[in-house]
Hints:
Elements (H helix, E strand, L loop, with lengths): L5 E10 L2 E11 L4 E5 L6 H8 L7 E6 L2 E2 L4 H7 E4 L11 H11 L6 H10 L15 H13 L5 E5 L7 H16 L3 E6 L2 H4 L4 E6 L2 E6 L1 H4 L6 E7 L2 H9 L4 E7 L2 E6 L2 H14 L4 E7 L3 H13 L18
Parallel strand pairs: 3-8, 3-9, 6-7, 7-8
Antiparallel strand pairs: 1-2, 1-4, 4-5, 9-10, 11-13, 11-14, 12-13
Amino acid sequence: MAAPAVETRGLSKSFEKVEAVRSLDLTVNEGEMFCLVGPDGAGKTTTIRLLCGLVRPDAGRASILGFDLERDPGRIKERIGYLSQKFSLYGDLTVDENIEFFAEIHRVRDFRERREELLEFTRLTPFRDRLAERLSGGMRQKLALACTLIHTPRLIFLDEPTTGVDPVSRRDFWAILSSLLRSGITIVMATPYMDEAERSSRVGLLSGGRLLAADAPQALKRLMRGTVVEVVCRDIRRAFAVLKGLAGVREVQLFGDRLNAVVDEPESVVPRLEAALAREGIAVVHKRLLPPSLENVFISVTSADTEGLSPRGSVPLEIPGGPS
Length: 324
């Protein structure tokens, strides 16, 4: 059986008093896309930098593509690619020259054929003579990805590659990633976008430096505590305030002209919800039950963690160092 592309046990890293990554146990299989999701400060970037060997862990171990991260960093770096949040393209070099520069860094001698493939693959061939500083945000990210792929890595780490990129460019970028997956490359990506995580093979939910759950998107949705009820009504902001304090309502989110309320028992809570709104003179125009989104699941899982429960919300978590 092939070794996992990434495997960590107890991986930890602190910066002064901040525990950026806390006892991370993670397995990523070859050929899959694994998304790390979480808010700012969750530990996504530090996790990726640890796995790339850019920062040293305080504790724990990791293997990348079968090589030990501590003992074989050179072999690992030959086989991986890394696209950081602020990828350092050279604005005064053209698209062609940037790719050539990174080919030289990775000691790729006969890079020209590979460069042609990457330019075609990323649809940058018409812009090959344009300076990088004159590219749009989406085109810069595609160039950054081409530079990351120039040495044909087996595994690539992407740290929020589509943040600040327009929707059309995001779609193009994802089409490229889908093609990479079909070619057998393993992708580990950090993203703040739950809709992107939905497209991945598996998702890891990070909060406060801890991996709370990791599974396929549909499997994670089974961790959801409560049921999502969509409510359409007038005076939506006042309705939000009413439902926020209603017993049996776990969470309320505002989406334009509608609310999503997470309730414990829809059969009993929904009638009380309507009655509470009616007392305030707010009529419900439409309501329906919705399948949970990953954002709903993330809120549910982090709430369970705060309450000291397992992700399923019923079994107490074992807190390291806590009372036995």
